Amino acid sequence: MKREEILQRLRFHVPEKKRKRVIVHTDIKNEADDPFTIVQHLLTPSEEVEGIIAGHNEWMAGIMVPKMAEQYGISQEELMAKMSDMTESGAGTEGNPMVTPRGKSMEKNYREGVKILKLAQIDDVPLVRGSAYELASDRPEELPESEGADFIIQQAMKKDDRPLYVALLGCLTDLAIAYLKEPQIADKVIAVWIGGGDYPNGGGEFNLMQDVIAARVLFDSPMEIWQIPMNVYKTMEFSLAELVDKIAPCGEIGAYLCQQMLDFNEKMGNTPNGFPHGETWSIGDNPTVSVLLQGSERVCWHMEHAPYINDDYSYTMREDSKMIRVYDSVDTRLTLSDLFSKLRLCYGGR
Questions:
Q1: Of 83 and 71, the one with more pLDDT
Q2: Mean of the pLDDT values across residues 18-28?
Q3: Whole-angstrom Cα distance, residue 317 to residue 294?
Q4: Confidence (pLDDT) at 271
Q5: DSSP element (H, E) containing 278
Q6: Fold of the domain spanning 3-347
Q7: Cα torsion angle, 204, 207, 213, 218, sign
Q8: How confident is the model at residue 80, as a pLDDT?
Q9: Signal sequence: where (predicted)?
Q10: How many Cα atoms are found within 13 Å in the side-chain-facing hemisphere of 269?
Q11: Exposed/middle/buried for 73, CB within 10 Å: 0-12, 13-18, 19+?
């Protein structure tokens, strides 16, 4: 079914001049929140979703798996087997998304993207593969292959006066590759990124840790950046009771969104990590919808010189860099109510 056919169920129309061109970049199978963001972008008629890019989340394989194995006191191989056993019978799971072998995370994310589009009954939004690995350097001759980067370039260079918003729910790898391959996209793209630690200090944050070189490339580029740091995106929180009450009844896609989060919450909640929290969840990628949806008169952000990102992910503030938009808050009520209503209107439910 075409996306427009689904959107007609909303029973309202967005004026053509108010529509934004958007690409959504996601590590959708990393954990349980990305699918909600993908679906909300797809159900937002003010967005012309040009496509979805499946990115990697390789930091988990390179850093987190050894740490978790050490916590358990077992080998990495034993950990992988243990986590696979824990999830093999769970609805909506495909092995544990937090412990993917090195070089395999992007493909797992791609497969989950295929599933989400099918459950959402949308067959005309392109889904493309990003890079399987983070950047080793910013030298053009060392860039990894990325269909997603080429897709960004293709869309950015179209004859269209509107900017291309790239909503980044995870790593910055593919946008950095696109910029390094074609620097002209810098004045045509607005990067809307969920990532980075709190200002002014920064620090370890999951999406930033996926590819610090890519972050440095984009922060040093002339590209416009809207950054939604961790202290802001973590406020996009709902309870599991709301999940079961408001999302589960909304057709096959609602049932899947609910069950995969409940499964993930149960299984990861019994590991040595402090995450997840138990009865609530921050769907921390949905602020990419928030900032594109809310009225332009609302100024809940400030301008900041782009910091230098150190090897420990902390920020070094500087006064000679470009200015970026850093969000101080997002509207949780607007975003969650919008998500619940769009799912119900498009897929049924109470």
A1: 71
A2: 98
A3: 29
A4: 67
A5: none
A6: Inosine-uridine Nucleoside N-ribohydrolase; Chain A (3.90.245)
A7: negative
A8: 66
A9: none
A10: 13
A11: exposed
Tokens 């599933």 sit on residue: 115
Per the CB < 8 A criterion, the answer to whether 105 and 32 are in contact is no
Among the residue ranges 146-150, 268-272, 325-329, the one predicted with the least confidence is 268-272
What torsion do the CA atoms of 54, 55, 57, 58 make, to the nearest 10 degrees?
120
Report the run of H or E that residue 12 belongs to, with start and end.
Answer: none
CB atoms closer than 10 angstroms to residue 38: 27
The structure's pTM equals 0.91
DSSP assigned state of 283: -
Q: Which residue has the tokens 């004026």?
A: 15
Least confident of 137-141, 269-273, 278-282: 269-273
> Would you state the torsion angle of the CA atoms of residues 101, 38, 256, 1, taken in this order, to the nearest 10 degrees?
-120
Residues 269, 336, 129: CA angle, nearest 5 degrees: 70
Q: Is the pLDDT of residue 347 over 50?
A: yes
Is 88 a residue whose pLDDT tops 80?
no
Based on the number of CB atoms within 10 Å of its own CB, is 298 exposed (0-12), middle (13-18) or buried (19 or more)? exposed
Token reading at 15: 């004026």
Q: Where are the alpha helices (DSSP H) in 238-347?
A: 240-242, 251-268, 287-293, 332-347
For residue 22, what are its two tokens? 């958007």
Instruction: Provide the token pair at 47.
Output: 């967005």
Structure tokens at 178: 């696109």
The residue written with tokens 């959402």 in the block is: 120
Whose CA is closest to 120, among 20, 28, 257?
Answer: 257
* Residue 341: how many other CB atoms lie within 10 Å: 13
Contact partners, residue 118, CB within 8 Å, separation at least 6 = none
Domain borders along the chain are 3-347
